[in-house]
Amino acid sequence: MMVVAQLMASLYTGQLDSNKHINTEIMKTIYKIVLIGLMLLITGAVIVSCSSTKDKYTAVTDVEDEFKIEKSGAQLWGETCNRCHLAPSPADYNDTDWETISLHMRVRANLTEKESNKILEFLKSAN
Predict the structure, then answer these.
(1) How far apart are CA 41 and CA 50, in angstroms?
(2) Would you say the C-alpha torsion 101, 102, 103, 109 has a positive or negative sign?
(3) Residues 39 and 76 reside in one and the same domain
(4) Which of 10, 76, 79, 99 has its CB surrounded by the most CB atoms within 10 Å?
């Protein structure tokens, strides 16, 4: 190892004696060793940086729920109902009819209970 260090130092400083002959094979070997060392170092750094920190930090889903902007019943009604058909006017049906329609359309439109309730509240208030 000491020989390699001396060769590297003499190459860096440019102070090679005329009596010393540097074999190109030795230099190629040194170059390969340095490259392999750098590749291992970089690979190790990538592995460590990509490792899981699941236990150390709050799950992203918890944070997303806090900052999620929820849509109003009117927005959901306009977007959901008009996706498949022309949305009827809220005044077209009475409250009892809207309750029955909302149960049916919840299944057909694949709505959550919360979304269905928001739409129903909007339709009843606009009725």
Answers:
(1) 14
(2) positive
(3) no
(4) 76
In a domain, 60, yes or no: no
Q: Is the dihedral of CA 9, 14, 19, 20 positive or negative?
A: positive
Residue 62 in any domain: the answer is: no
The answer to whether the beta carbons of residues 20 and 3 sit under 8 Å apart is no
Residue that wins the pLDDT comparison between 85 and 69:
85
- Distance, in Å, from the CA atom of 20 to the CA atom of 9, rounded to the nearest integer, reads 14
Query: Residue 125: which H helix or E strand, with range?
Result: helix 113-126
What pTM value is reported for the model? Answer: 0.48
